[in-house]
Each structure stands twice: as C-alpha cells, then as structure tokens.
Amino acid sequence: MATAVIMPKQGQSVETCIITKWFKNKGESVSVGDILFSYETDKAAFDLESPAEGILLDRYFEEGNEVPVLVNVAVIGKNGEPTGSFDPQQKGHPDTTASTASKAVEDSKAEEEEISGFSDSHKTDRIRISPRAKRLAIDNNINYNSLQGSGPNSRIIASDIEKVLSGSVTGKKVIRETNPEFNEQPLSNVRQLIAKAMHSSLQNSAQVTHHMSADVRHLLEARQKIKSQIADNVNQQDITINDMVCWCVIKALEKFPEANSHFLDDRIKTFHKVHLGLAVDTPRGLMVPVVKNAGNMNLVELSKELKSVAEACRKGRINPELIRSDAASFTVSNLGSYGVEMFTPVINLPQVGILGVCTIINRPADMGNNIFGFVPYIGLSLTYDHRAIDGGPATIFLKEIKTQIEKFRY
Length: 410
Prior knowledge:
Elements: E1 3-6, E2 16-22, E3 29-30, E4 35-40, E5 45-49, E6 54-59, E7 66-68, E8 72-77, H1 97-112, E9 115-116, E10 128-129, H2 131-139, E11 142-143, H3 158-166, E12 175-176, H4 189-203, E13 207-215, H5 217-231, H6 241-255, E14 261-263, E15 268-270, E16 276-278, E17 280-282, E18 285-287, E19 290-291, H7 299-314, E20 330-334, E21 353-368, E22 371-385, H8 391-406
Parallel strand pairs: 16-20, 20-21
Antiparallel strand pairs: 1-8, 2-4, 2-7, 3-6, 4-5, 6-8, 9-10, 11-12, 13-22, 14-15, 16-19, 17-18, 21-22
C-alpha cells in the first residue's frame, strides 16, 4: 500500500514551509531514513527523511514551492500503484481546502493590487503584475516582461515568479539578468531571518562588550586526561574545552542571576534555572539551540546535551521550540576553533547577555619568585545589554566566569 509523505508541522505557529532542495527524483528507490528533501520554516531549516521503503511514485511540489503543513508532498509505494487519491492538487482533495482558499484570497488581492509595470524608450506595452510579484522579481533580478501570468486577465502574480525561481518555468522569454562582473543570488529564508534578528538586536538594545582572559591550565590538563582515557578505550564521554567553559558559565550565572534574564522593555524576567543557548554553525546558517535546565546537569550530562542539540541543528532535525530566541536565558558563542582572539558577539534578544569564547593564547605571566613563564589564556568577550545591566555588575559577572574557569578541577 502506498504511503504519503506529509509536510511536518514544525511548531505551533508554523503554517507553511518552503521546499529548498529535493534529493530524490520521481521513480527512484528510497529506503526508510533516506533524506527526501530539505525545507525551511520561518525559523529554521530541516531535512525530511523517508517514512517508508519503495519507489518515489510522485512529487506534488517542487523546489521553491511554499507548502501548507500536513499536506501530501509526495507518495512512496510499489511500481504501478495508483497515486491519484494522494494528489493534493486535485479538486476536492481534503488537503487542499485551506490552501485553495488561501490561493483564492491571494489571487483576489493580486487583482486588487494590479499595477502597471515599468516602461522605457524601447517598450511601451503595459505589464500587468501585482506589487508583491514585482518586488519578488526585482529582488531576484528576473526579467518579467515576457512572462505569461496565471492570474486574472493574465496578470503576473507571486506564484508565477516563484515558479521561475524554482526552475519550473524555462525558455528564452524568461531570463534572469546576469552581469559578467559579479554573481547575485537571493538570500535563503534562514539567512534573511538571521539578518533580520542581528539588525534588530543592534538597533533595539544598548550593547556593550567587555573583554577578559582566563588561565586555562586546569582545563587543558582535564582535556588531556580525557583524551588519554578515550585512547585507552575507557568508557569516557568526550568532554571538550567548550563543554567545560559552558559548565563554568552556568556556575557563574547561578551566582549572578541578573545576567540570566530577559529584558522586556518595561520589565526584566529573571530565570531561576539556566537555559543555556549554544551558537552552532550549520550549512544552512547560524542556529542557537537551547539546553533546558542546564544547571541541573552534571558535566557529562551537559556535554552530551550540547553535542546532541548541535548535531540536531546540523542535520536539520532540531525541535523549532528549542531555537526560539526566547527559549534560552543566556547564550555562549565559541569561535576559538577558528583562531579568533577577540570579537563582539551580538545578543540574541530578549536575552541580556552573550559570552564569546575566543582562542587560547600563551602569554607571559608572573609564576612567582621573580620567575616569568608562558601561561595559556582563553579570551572571554561578554556582550551585555546596558539597559538591563550596568558596567560594574557586568564586569563582576565576567570575572566570576574567569574564576570558575581557573578553579576548575576534573
């Protein structure tokens, strides 16, 4: 019996998702767990795995299409099995009721918003195109002059431009403008969200960054011990320097709860538990998953959770509720592996602080008895919202992180 592939509902507020890439073509064999396609919500990007084994009998949406959640995207079964009953595009199909109504409203709005297209000395014909479609075309360098619209009276609507972007419309009459001196491509949905969040953060808060360094000899000793145990096949969790720093940050937050807060314009929400966010670099862009109740975990448990949420982000399987900006109470961003010595991390609002972890550098230090040597120091860059925290308390909090790192024992 054929199996429908349904667009998942990723979070309570998600109503539609955009298919960004197909990995399987119609007619190909698939196994359970194979990645069928990637898709984006308004918060993050994900991969969808095959729920069944068989042949990909049909695909009802293509790359670039915006698909309502819980609607059939494809169907898997055996060769020759009928698939007509799964097609959400067929009239009267139960899955299309909401989307058909939505499209009717969009087409109605497009008709009301009809405008004249641009004209120049070489062209005087009137182009019937909705404002939304025109914006989309201009943003993506699409020449829509010769495009045949599918709206009322052949007007061009947004879905016509989206078909060009997805490659489902071809031909010499529809081209994307090119320039031999540079290459342009539209921003992905995730990149647009990141850009919007970062700009909003800097525009709507008073951010200040303090820099400090901490002696990490004890952390490096612990790390060497852990690596030796792993090499000796001891059942040992691979606890990293970043895991240890996060552990120390949690201890500092428990002593300075004012940094474990959200600034909400007319009030400050201070959390009794530490919900630690971790900035993760993924192929789709920056994500910040949260480890809930991180302060209740021991170091081994924290290490496992940090790795778990990071891996879920990279594979596109993270729960959308765990990457909401208000899910974490404080965030750590580690660029040390890239050799960054100092940077200014941007706060993930409404949080009031974020710690940037930098690379380890050997610096001269007084070893006592007029003896000087080189000591490994890790850079710490704390950005805080001055609306919520003053400079003095912020410095004391950063110093507490330094203290926790320097007194760390494993």
